[in-house]
Write a structure and sequence with these properties.
There is one protein chain. The chain is of the alpha/beta class. It folds into three domains: 74 residues, Chitobiase/beta-hexosaminidase domain 2-like (Chitobiase, domain 2); 314 residues, TIM Barrel (Alpha-Beta Barrel), CATH 3.20.20.80; 155 residues. It contains 20 helices and 13 strands. It has an eight-stranded parallel beta sheet with strand order 8-7-6-13-12-11-10-9. Helix 7 packs parallel to helix 9, helix 14 runs antiparallel to helix 17 and helix 19 runs antiparallel to helix 20. It is globular. It starts with 8 loop residues before the first strand and ends with a helix.
Length: 580
């Protein structure tokens, strides 16, 4: 059986059900305490679905649908009993770092989540919602409208998916501050006239927590968007408040501590969420540094424990367990900052974190998909990571998650690859790259005033991160990518996924990773770090032009124009530079 997630108990019976004359749905207990447990019985004369809840019946239907796809002519008789490990199995999708999906794409994403038994969807928003009173904040961003959110919310409810609002309310206030409220910046400077920089938007800016207008703006945001969602939860984020206590509130932070500043403002935000009749969620990275203050946070608030590394060095799961509060573990698909997700890293991170979550009593697994640095990573290439999270959330110890088996199943059933080798090769491909998109952006976007000078080499002007590997390592990386690409392209010509755009998205991702290496090599040669040019700059410029064209094609198939122009600006600057 190549089902995802794989049912945990299957009893095979004699015979086949060729053309079921009846499908019976029964709401009744199935001797399991889990609310979404179900039993699927396939007999010669018909099919019976049993569950204690409508959600359980719905998941039985998802399993039946996959069985029918796998057995087109007749279904083998069997009895399946199945249930999830985590009550909440979520997918978290960034719609604010430059790319805003169309409503059609969001509805398709909800359908995909439902197929793999994901029951929570969160869309991350910093500024990409069309606030009534603040058009200056969201202009030219492709912002989501109230009507679009309500339509998506209604469809999610039909699919037994909880669409949870997730809005930045403390850190990550770059666009609000940059476009309209420079006086609310913790940093003591007016940034409204500074050129746009992805680094600044990712790392800065944090609200001035002592300015009464800051909490007023947050309350206004919450009051406006809360009625659009049926969910009883509201993710207020409050993560990565990097600037807190470094500017306007530096003296106060030195007196009472940054942790005190953080918790006091966080409690105000949570009060606003509760006033809007919702249960707050918050990212747990900051409070993890101040465990002594954790008891001050309302007990009903759900902490989101994120860690995106394969070794799980940053998880606060044990701390959250000891605190006695509900929490989710939050791994990631490892697609951000890259043209193609690092599937190997994502697999280790998600599957290992799921086991940690079960050990420490997490009530949910929320699998994250971010879009740092303009969101060049495409949604279609995220599918294997989404499925990894779905399967890990349903059954942590599932035999279907054994790496070789999992890669083969995903390749065949989801990517339309009859050889079963595609995901394995893509994993090798993504893991072979040494050049990174963020460093390329550092070279071609205006340099942030917040960059320390020692991040750049004085002689060449290149970021030190570009120089950390010998130039020859990038030569070898490019050769390996080119070799793997030939093998992958042979498979792609025969792939028949349901979503044909995925093939093109994979090709865009591969091209993007190769030209990043080429840009490194050109710049390293110019800096005297490579005696002989390994690439033809003009040929690389042509390939970057193709990348811009192909990215625009796949982008516009799934998304609003949003901020594609920012990526195009960088790519065109590179083409101009390489053509010198």
């Amino acid at each position: 059986m190549n089902l995802l997630p794989l049912p945990r108990r299957v009893r095979k019976l004699a015979g086949y059900c060729a053309k079921p004359r009846r499908i019976t749905r029964v709401l009744e207990p199935v001797n399991r305490p889990e609310a979404e447990a179900y039993r699927l019985s396939i007999a010669k004369d018909g099919i019976t679905l049993r569950a204690a809840t409508p959600a359980g019946l719905f998941y039985a239907e998802q399993t039946l649908a996959q069985l029918r796809e796998e057995n087109e002519k007749r279904l083998p008789c069997m009895e399946i009993t199945d249930w999830p490990d985590f009550p909440v199995r979520g997918f978290y999708h960034d719609v604010t770092r430059g790319k805003v999906p169309t409503l059609k794409t969001l509805l398709e994403l909800a359908e995909t989540c439902a197929r793999y038994k994901i029951n929570q969807l969160q869309l991350y928003v910093e500024h990409t919602y069309a606030y009534k009173n603040h058009p200056e904040v969201w202009k030219n961003s492709g912002a989501l409208t109230a009507k679009e959110i309500k339509t998506l919310d209604a469809r999610c409810a039909e699919l037994h998916i909880d669409l949870v609002p997730s809005f930045s309310t403390f850190g990550h206030f770059y666009t609000w501050i940059h476009n309209k409220f420079p006086e609310l910046n913790e940093l003591e400077r007016d940034v409204s006239g500074e050129p746009f920089c992805w680094w600044d938007r990712m790392m800065h800016y944090t609200l001035d927590c002592q300015n009464p207008k800051s909490i007023e703006i947050v309350r206004e945001m919450i009051r406006e968007v809360r009625p659009l969602f049926r969910s009883k939860y509201f993710n207020l984020c409050a993560d990565e408040t990097f600037d807190l206590g470094t500017g306007r509130n530096k003296a106060l932070a030195e007196k009472v501590g940054k942790g005190r500043l953080y918790v006091d403002f966080l409690k105000q935000i949570m009060a606003a969420v509760k006033e809007a009749d919702a249960i707050p969620m918050f990212w747990g990275d900051i409070i993890g540094h101040y465990p002594e203050l954790l008891p001050e946070i309302p007990t009903e608030a759900i902490a989101l424990d994120w860690d995106y590394g394969p070794e799980l060095k940053s998880t606060k799961a044990e701390l959250m367990e000891k605190s006695g509060r509900a929490f989710y573990i939050c791994p990631g698909v490892s697609g951000w900052n890259a043209w193609l997700p690092n599937y190997g890293r994502a697999y280790k991170n998600i599957t290992r974190f799921a086991k940690v979550g079960r050990k420490h009593g997490a009530s949910g697994l929320l699998n994250t998909d971010w879009g740092d640095f303009g969101h060049v990573n495409t949604l279609g290439t995220t599918l294997p990571g989404l499925i990894t999270g779905a399967c890990s959330g349903w059954h942590v110890q599932s035999p279907a998650l054994q790496l070789a088996r999992f890669e083969k199943t995903v390749s065949q059933t989801c990517l339309g690859d009859s050889t079963g080798k595609l995901l394995e090769l893509l994993s090798k491909y993504a893991g072979s790259s040494k050049a990174t998109w963020p460093m390329v952006c550092w070279m071609y976007q205006p340099r942030s005033k917040d960059f320390p000078d020692d991040w750049f080499d004085a002689a060449s002007g290149l970021p030190n991160d570009v120089l950390k590997n010998p130039a020859e390592a990038h030569v070898q990386a490019l050769k390996k990518l080119q070799t793997l690409q030939k093998r992958i392209e042979k498979i792609l010509t025969r792939c028949r996924p349901k979503d044909r755009l995925i093939v093109k998205e994979i090709q865009v991702g591969m091209l993007g990773m190769q030209v990043m290496e080429e840009i490194y090599l050109v710049r390293l040669h110019r800096a005297g770090k490579l005696s002989k040019s390994a690439v033809n700059p003009k040929e690389s410029a042509r390939r970057i032009g193709k990348l811009e064209h192909d990215l625009s094609f796949v982008w516009n198939k799934r998304n609003k124009p949003s901020e594609l122009f920012r990526i195009q600006t960088v790519l065109k600057a590179i083409v101009k530079d390489l053509g010198k």
